[in-house]
Every structure is written in C-alpha cells, then in structure tokens.
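REVIEWER CHECKLIST
Item 1: Sequence provided? yes
Item 2: Single chain? yes
Item 3: Sequence as submitted:
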Amino acid sequence: MSLKARYTLRKIDVIVMKESQDPKGIFSFDVSYTSLDNTENIPEDHQTGELIKLEQYANINIEGFKDQGVDYMFTLDNDVVESQSNIQEFNPIFRQLFKCYIAGEWGDAFECIQRCLECWEDDGPTKAIQFYLSAFQYQQPNQWNGYRNIEDDLNKIYRSRIRAQQLDEQSQEDSKNQKNEHVSHG
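Item 4: Structure as written out by the authors:
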C-alpha cells in the first residue's frame, strides 16, 4: 500500500482470532460527512469514481499517473481529499486514545474517549473501544498483551452485558410488584 493511502487510514484495533493467533491490525478509512456537503467544485454531470482534480492541480495531466496505481487519487482527487478534510484535527486525539488502549493505560484512555467524542460524537471506533473498556470498568485485565482475542472477549462481554440487563429488568419488575402490593394493601 502506498504511503499516501496509508496516511488516510486509521488503526482502530489489534485482534487475534481462532484462525490466527498472530495479532492483526484493523484499519478504517474515515469519511467526514460534513465535508461531503460541499458540492461547489463538482460538475453537475459528475459520476462517483470519476476524478475531479483539486483546483491547485487543475493543469496537471493525470494520464501518466494512472499506470502507477491509485496513489495519485489521495493527493489529486477532490472527492478523496475533501472526504477527510475535517478529520485531521480528530486523528491526533484518537491516536493518543489508541496508544493508551494498546499500552493498557485504560484510565488515561477514558479521558481520551471523552475528548474524541467531543470532536466526533458518532465515531464508531471510539465507541467500540469505549464499550470494550467499560466492560472491564477501565481496568486492564491481567493477561492484556496489547491486543484482544475477538471471540473470547466479545463473548464474555456480551454474556456479562446480557446478564446485567436481565438483573436490571428483574430488579425493575420486583420494584413494580412491590409497589403494586403496597397499593393493594393500603
């Protein structure tokens, strides 16, 4: 993968699975939907996937670049560049969160999560890390090695969340029954 393409990706997790015990990174290509609303430089007959050069590159002939892969699109194409224009301020905050997460500094990660969600409240990878860390009450497990086993961990978290939800529902039902008994005896 080219350096330009790598720069646009965000590492969002490191996992192992039953199929492979070698830790694998998971990456995201982020799109800022607010920047996609800017359509002033897009011709009316534009088709998704067609190159629209950024104004500063309008005079560059791209035919020579096409034989060298898609690297040029991460520099020249308005769609690709603009889709990530508002993400650059968010990325350093997320990188700090990710660093804390991988290093097992989960208390510090909590603060980073809050900062990330202030910048981008609907960021799925931040919410996924938040969900995972909250299942452990932001305390790194003893066996933490900077990655997680996606099958084991997710099953444990899912079961604990379902059990907590069942206990909460039972508690609400018990409270409701107690109120009804009190009203009927009163």
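Item 5: Key structural point noted by reviewer: Helices lie at 3-7, 63-66, 73-76, 78-83, 91-103, 106-119, 124-135, 150-185.
Item 6: Recommendation: ____
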